[in-house]
Description:
The protein has 15 helices and nine strands. It starts with a helix and ends in a 9-residue tail after the last helix. It is α+β, with helices and mostly antiparallel strands. About 45% of the residues lie in helices and about 15% in strands.
Amino acid sequence: MAPQWLELGLREALRQDGRHALEELFNDAHWRLASDHAEPGEKCYAARPTTVDTLFGPLCVRRNYYTDGQGGGRAPLDEALGMVEGCTPALARLMCRAGAVEHYEAAAASLNEYSGLTVNGRRIQRMVNRLGPQMAQWPRPSPPLCLPPPDQVFYVEGDGTGIPVRPEETEGRKGKQDDQSAKTREVKLGCVFTQTKEDEEGKPVRDPESTSYVATLEPAAEFGTLLRAEAFRRGLALAKVVVFLGDGAAWVWELARVNFPMAVFILDFFHAAEHLELLAQALFGEKTDTSKTQWEQWAKVLKEQPDGLEIVLREARQALPRRGLRREAALKQIAYFESNTNRMRYAEYLARGLFIGSGVIEAGCKTVIGLRLKQSGMFWGVTGAKNVLDIRSLLENRQFALFWEQYRKPLPVAA
């Protein structure tokens, strides 16, 4: 017999033994539950059987079931064991994790391959939609309050990315299509992290496992409230230096102004460099050697010289055409830089050892959102997307296991 079949056969034998042991335990007649009695108006169906899916496979549990004659019913043992959608919490945990990491059919295949469980994709989807709201409402525990190191910098970042949704989710919403219709809904993602050290070259280094995320499909105002709450949970009130990093979107800076008014605002340098390229192309032609050379020179000046932005704008104005579309395009980019002047003191930021790029949130948009919600052929409902996002946020924040530790209290009285 090949070794793999020997191991798989042994795994199945162990699963059968575990199933029999668990079934015997769940059906023990000596369980004592405070709520296991008929309330006024209820009728008891003693030892009513039900099928429960577990990590070891399905098993039959006989427990008392009470009905009120109005269509309602309860099973105290099910509640005490933490059953959800006919599954034990241990199985529900695996289903939620799998459904948040892969599309539902792939998640079902992975569960079967890794553990021998047979659960179809639709059931995993139902489990995610059942428990996602509970994870969203779960009060995330705060780290122990302690004074941060004197050289620690507290960072907040925010951004947005579109996810494909079903047509009914975009009714009445303007979009980027030629007819101004929308095919996506924007997910707003925020992150908080800290920085205490610099590397050998003097570049800032993010503190290990210090990044946490919040994600929502709600408007910017609600997103700002969520991000501020996460920042306070992480110790914003004790931070001596707070930095808000973002791109040039107006809603991002309004959010920062309202929720983090004392922060140092930094416009992501790479977004600034993209606008520098557009400025150089407007003045010296698209994809010309002159525009490329000028762009590279300006980017270096903007990044390294204390008065870099003033130098760039002065030289750009001197090169302005007297009229025409190129002049209009150049003036548009100049206006962009003028409106962000106070967020582009890059030489000063670098001298202070601060990050000037919003790479953390850019990467988060890909890992937290894109890897699961922006795959080919996907079209989401807003509610379903939100539930997946809430579970993925717990996974990324290293709080998924803690949620399940606190999900249901253990059985109050054991036989």
